[in-house]
């Protein structure tokens, strides 16, 4: 009987970035002899999107990571003799160097997800395998150095209110924002000037941080989910013929996923809106597309290592809580059957890593076999 079978990560660290090394020990305690083919740890990174349209479900699966480390014995479908593991305690060290190439940040959404995890398996002949799973969080490194994103921006919109047959006059709106790139923990300052030359009454103003998630499935099937992450309201009337300066209190970017684009399943983008609410008329929106990063711009004096670490920890804790809650959920995997599902599985990017990353003597090994780490087929 197996009393203990768990993955213990070094320092209990569960949040990583591209280029980091995931390391730990697989702990196994048994009070009976176990016959096995091998013991392995697998590292997985997968993006999934499922969109139902009528009676058909369109599904896309994108693989970002697929590695396994053979800790004892042989790999699946590899020839060789079985091993008899005697009762006792066993520690199997492992490590996975993550590629330095971009990896999408962990994400859980309405129509899809980006998930990373470790699976440990004791492969037993003619018996049910022993399995254990540990969720991971990976945060993509996103930083903006382009000057055009770091300078203040001003936009203007002149809009005719009413209908073409009975216009109500023009509403002139100017909005100004400090820059177009932010990271969690940074302050956003937005202001505006509104000149009401219409016969309508302005009843208030809003500053909004909006997240837009685009889910992409086969056959050009998409779903877009927009969420207001932060809303700052200013209740102030502006009568016809008046104008006013609108100054909002600054607000802080919350811990959210960075801007993610260029991957096959999910795109995440952000915008900051300056909204003018008009009584009995359509509102006016001035939209500033912004980039959410994980590293403050180098040009700012506040971009010190301590602040970077605080920002990373806040974001990591947020993502880790979501990953732990969602990893074992099958909500995104539900389907009416393969015959009603249209699948598209893009091949894994070539930049994921080498086919053989390392080979060295496994510490604490009693078998004398090398520690193997390679891409899964």
Label this structure with key terms.
377 residues; Immunoglobulin-like; 2 domains; 9-stranded mixed sheet; 5-stranded mixed sheet; 25 strands; disordered C terminus; Arrestin_C-like; Arrestin domain-containing protein 3; Arrestin-like_N; Arrestin-like_C
Question: Can you give a write-up of this model?
Answer:
The chain has 377 residues and is mainly beta. The protein folds into two domains: 2-138, Immunoglobulin-like (Sandwich); 147-292, Immunoglobulin-like (Sandwich). The chain has helices at residues 147-150, 305-326, and strands spanning 2-9, 15-16, 21-30, 34-36, 38-53, 56-73, 83-85, 88-97, 107-108, 112-123, 130-138, 153-163, 166-177, 181-182, 187-188, 190-198, 202-217, 221-234, 243-247, 251-252, 266-278, 284-292, 341-344, 356-361, 370-375. The strands form six sheets. Strands 2, 5, 6, 9, 10, 11, 23, 24 and 25 form a nine-stranded mixed sheet that branches. The radius of gyration is 27 Å and the shape is elongated. The two termini are 32 Å apart. 31% of the residues are buried.
> What pattern of helices and strands is seen along the backbone?
EEEEEEEEEEEHEEEEEEEEEEEHEEE
Major sheet size, sense and barrel closure? 9 strands, mixed
CATH topology type of the largest domain: Immunoglobulin-like
The proportion of residues forming helix, as a percent range, comes to under 10%
Question: What structural class do the secondary elements suggest?
Answer: mainly beta
What percent strand? over 45%
Oligomer: single chain
How many individual domains?
Answer: 2
The average pLDDT value, as a whole number, equals: 81
Low-confidence region ranges: 299-304, 327-338, 346-377
Just name the CATH architecture of the largest domain: Sandwich
The coarse silhouette is elongated
Tally of separate helices: 2
Domain Arrestin C-terminal-like: 167-297
GO biological process, one term: protein transport
Family: Belongs to the arrestin family.
Biased composition (Polar residues): 356-370
């Amino acid at each position: 009987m197996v009393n203990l079978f768990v993955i213990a990560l070094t320092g209990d660290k569960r949040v990583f970035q591209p280029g980091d090394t995931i390391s730990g020990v697989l702990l196994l305690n048994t009070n009976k002899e176990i016959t096995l083919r091998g013991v392995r740890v697998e590292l997985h990174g997968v993006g999934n999107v499922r969109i139902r349209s009528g009676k058909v479900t369109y599904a896309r699966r994108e693989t970002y990571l697929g590695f396994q480390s053979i800790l004892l014995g042989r790999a699946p479908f590899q020839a060789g003799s079985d091993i008899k593991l005697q009762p006792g305690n066993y520690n199997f060290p492992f490590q996975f160097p993550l590629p330095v190439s971009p990896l999408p940040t962990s994400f859980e959404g309405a129509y899809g997800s980006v998930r990373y995890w470790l699976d440990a398996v004791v492969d037993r002949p003619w018996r049910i395998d022993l399995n254990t799973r540990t969720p991971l969080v990976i945060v993509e490194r996103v930083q903006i150095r382009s000057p055009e994103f770091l300078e203040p921006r001003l936009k203007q919109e002149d809009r005719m209110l009413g209908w073409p047959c009975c216009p109500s006059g023009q509403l002139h709106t100017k909005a100004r924002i400090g820059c177009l790139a932010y990271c969690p923990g940074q302050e956003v300052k937005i202001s505006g000037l509104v000149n009401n030359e219409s016969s309508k009454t302005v009843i208030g103003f809003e500053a909004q941080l909006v997240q837009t998630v685009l889910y992409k499935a086969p056959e050009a099937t998409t779903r877009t989910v927009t969420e207001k992450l932060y809303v700052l309201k200013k209740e102030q009337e502006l009568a016809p013929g008046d104008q006013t300066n609108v100054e909002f209190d600054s607000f802080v970017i919350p811990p959210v996923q960075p801007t993610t684009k260029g991957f096959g399943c999910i795109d995440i983008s952000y915008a900051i809106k300056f909204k003018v609410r008009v009584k009995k008329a359509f509102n006016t929106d001035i939209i500033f597309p912004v980039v959410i990063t994980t590293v403050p711009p180098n040009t700012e004096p506040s971009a010190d290592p301590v602040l970077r670490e605080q920002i990373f920890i806040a974001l990591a804790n947020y993502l880790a809580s979501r990953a732990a809650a969602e990893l074992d959920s099958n909500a995104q995997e539900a389907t009416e059957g393969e015959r009603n599902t249209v699948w598209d599985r893009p091949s894994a990017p070539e930049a994921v890593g080498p086919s053989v990353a390392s080979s060295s003597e496994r510490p604490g090994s009693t078998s004398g076999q090398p520690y193997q780490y390679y891409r899964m087929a």
